[in-house]
Predict the 3D structure of the following.
Amino acid sequence: MRAEQDKIVSFHYRVCEVRGSQDPGTEVETSHGRPPLAFLFGHGGIIPGLEQAIAGRAAGDAFEVVIEPGQAYGLRREDFVQRVPKKYFHDAEHLKPGMATTLSTRDGPRSVTIVKLGSSVVDVDLNHPLAGKTLRFAVEITEVRDASEEELAHGHAHGPGGHH
Ligand code: ZN
């Protein structure tokens, strides 16, 4: 079975940030050592460049792909720094500049980076930590299967590596 619209695809990955074609890359994250990541193909569950690279692959396939920021986490926006009252942080006492934390927003939790700390406010960078970065993924497809009706209704994968 091949990865395509409405299939559940599970894969292991190792992702490196790369700066230029000669750069061996700096590891950012890996799924090795935990269950493979599972997602419902064609529902926006993973970044567009990675989904395109996975299209048509089958269990056992292994490959590398370099993804530009526009097809990964987007370009960095320099105007994306905002001043937020400290009370919105659950861990305000422990914050330091350069640290990543989670901010509760109306749209749900959001990853931010601390820029500056004041006595009652915090300046945060709302860019995704990987925005503006070129990423190289080493991917191993572990399973491709049909989605259940429930998974299609929810728009995501269930079971190990998925939701719930
Ligand atoms: Zn669900």
In short: Residues 15 and 137 are 4 Å apart (CA to CA).
